[in-house]
Amino acid sequence: MATDGIDTDTKSHLMADRLQNGKFGDFGGMFIPESLIPACSDLEKAFYEAFADEAFIAALNHLLKTYAGRPTPLTYCENLSEKLGIRLFLKREDLTHTGSHKINNVLGQALLAKRMGKKRMIAETGAGQHGVAAATAAALFGLDCVVFMGEVDVSRQALNVFRMKLLGAEVVPVKSGSATLKDAVNEALRDWVASVETTHYCIGSAMGPHPYPLIVRQLQSVIGKEAKAQFRDLSGDDPDFVVACVGGGSNAIGTFAGFVDTKSRLVGVEAAGGAAMHNGIPGVVHGMRSKFLQDESGQILEAESISAGLDYPGIGPEHAYLGTIGRANYSYVNDEEVIAAFRVLSETEGIIPALEPAHALAYILRAVETGEIPADASVMMTLSGRGDKDVAQIMEILEL
Amino acid sequence: MAETSSDLSVHDLNASLRQKKDAGRKLLVCYITGGLNADWLDMLYILADAGADAVEIGIPFSDPVMDGPVIQESSMQALANGATPLSILMQVEKEEPGIPLAVMTYYNLVYRMGEERFAERLIQSGITGAILPDLPIDEAAGWIETGAAHSLSAVLLAAPTTREERLNEIAAKSKGFVYAVGLLGVTGEREELSESASVLAASIKSRTETPVLVGVGISNPEQAKKVCQVADGVVVGSALVRRILENRSKQEIGAFVKSIREALD
Ligand SMILES: Cc1ncc(COP(=O)(O)O)c(C=O)c1O
């Protein structure tokens, strides 16, 4: 069926049209050390060529289908819908191989790395989901893989660290700065500055210098493309609300890509301690102009949340843009609301979510209560990953 | 008249380095992290006495992606001491080390203050150059213009991977000097001088009369001397900052810089 596979059209829909010289409005760009400029330019070129190459797209779609398990289902949550008085649908990225949407991005980037003749792939990771996905793709394609991970995250996501090692990747604990995701990005960039001739930097979210926000958006847009078609099949219509959690913003931007030209209201949900859209101001970090939590001098602040995957003080540039022009709205939820949502989904639907998408659900629960989401509204939420990685952490908190 | 013009060039990075280069001198620029310790300003005089031709003052940033462990450490230490762009610039304003001063920092600190205000503030502190390693030429048009309007030299960087047309543009637009990044990698000491250092320096020199200085990885007098067979000078950072972090005496640090000066003369 025609809706299978990724969206190869990088130009026609609303979001892509806004991209000018690597910028989404005022946001984005290529703010990187001179040594990396040729690599990013080459990557941009390789990306456009690959997306115009039927063989490349066929290979990627084949992998998405037979290796990652796409298309993922759209699940109607009967119990929770009844309880809330809305119609709630989940886009089930938790059912993919490796258990989160991150696989969509790494399969595409690993194929690109191969195409460009790179032998080594590096990645940063917060919760470890992108690290696991990158290590998986590297194993599949025979690439050497090094994953940078903040020391704090190494200890709170020990299982994912072990998974990466099982998959043959080297995990480098990062001790500098706050020893979380932003510092892992710094360290990956430092490695890349030195290794750029042989190495592909597989960025895990819709962030970083151009062309990364574009590439990651395009690779993740398979989520929104499938969800839109599936929702129309079920309801003959588009959802009233489309909701996704936002760390750097890849599952959200991939979801929004499918609905940006519909009537659906788009809502991105950040962690309260990393709410760059609300508390951030424009800045230039990690290769991009976007919104960042920072002090009055411009020093970047540490994000803080229960979920390692949303502990990022910035946000991808396309979100900064969609928020600024008002096409998408951004909200945030605190750790307590997240734990409550985590339990609700587990108990009412038999689905244990990752802590990151539990943020999206926490927003929905609150918005139903406040009337921001009215009764009978249809809500499509991206369940970006499953909760296995978080169970040990939650066990400590809940003492059930 | 003669006095006024030489007075000016004492402070002006662009004029001073160019004059010295034309007079056949190899140039030595030293990097220190601003606010690193209580008496960091003394270093300006020690470096000037030891024969540095200019000093780059690092304004510490929380996320220094072009820096290796030594300058990361000095940056974190300075930030922990409460150093801010304004505190450093206000301290420098009172100093007269007799050689030109530049700052090296990351673009977010400039962006936050505003390019215009940042440039004004530098000039007010007697600083006449700025190096922003994460602001490549494609994004630097406004900054270069603002700098020029304030007689502030925007020093641009070139890397071993930089391609021909870009190299032309960087060589043409860089002010003060062209910063040739001597190797593929972040700041830090290296055992060996990278082959790419001299190749890049020669390539840039064929395009401009602006002094071409090699920085990143220059760790000792021998390396400085060797690369200056081609380059017009060197930038020494981590080798110096490491000695400061190790609490070496001022005499010892002065002697280290002097040994580089002597190797170049
Ligand atoms: C399951 C899951 N969802 C969401 C995220 C946040 O990333 P992004 O905002 O790029 O989707 C992560 C990151 O680790 C994750 O593991």
- CATH architecture level-2 label of chain B: Alpha-Beta Barrel
Under CATH, the topology of chain B is which? TIM Barrel
Could you spell the SSE succession of chain B in H and E letters? Answer: HHEHEHHEHHEHEHEHEHEHH
The biggest sheet of chain B amounts to: 8 strands, parallel, barrel
Name given to the CATH homologous superfamily of chain B: Aldolase class I
First-last Cα distance of chain A: 46 Å
Number of helices, where a helix is a run of at least 4 consecutive DSSP H or I residues of chain B: 13
Q: What strand order characterises the main sheet of chain A?
A: 4-5-15-10-11-14
- The end-to-end span of chain B amounts to 30 Å
Polypeptide structure, described:
The complex is a heterodimer of chains A (400) and B (265). Chain A is an alpha/beta fold. Chain A has 16 helices and 15 strands. Chain A has a six-stranded mixed sheet with strand order 4-5-15-10-11-14, with helices on both faces. Chain A starts with 13 loop residues before the first helix and ends with a helix. The mean pLDDT of chain A is 94. By secondary structure, chain B is of the alpha/beta class. Chain B has helices spanning 2-11, 13-22, 42-49, 69-80, 85-93, 107-113, 115-124, 141-149, 164-173, 195-205, 221-227, 238-245, 250-264, and strands at 27-33, 54-58, 101-104, 129-131, 153-158, 178-181, 212-215, 233-236. Chain B has an eight-stranded parallel barrel, surrounded by eight helices. In chain B, helix 1 (2-11) packs across helix 2 (13-22), helix 6 (107-113) crosses helix 7 and helix 11 runs parallel beside helix 13 (250-264). Chain B is globular, with a radius of gyration of 17 Å. The two termini of chain B are 30 Å apart. The complex binds pyridoxal-5'-phosphate. Pyridoxal-5'-phosphate binds next to helix 6, helix 11 and helix 15 of chain A.
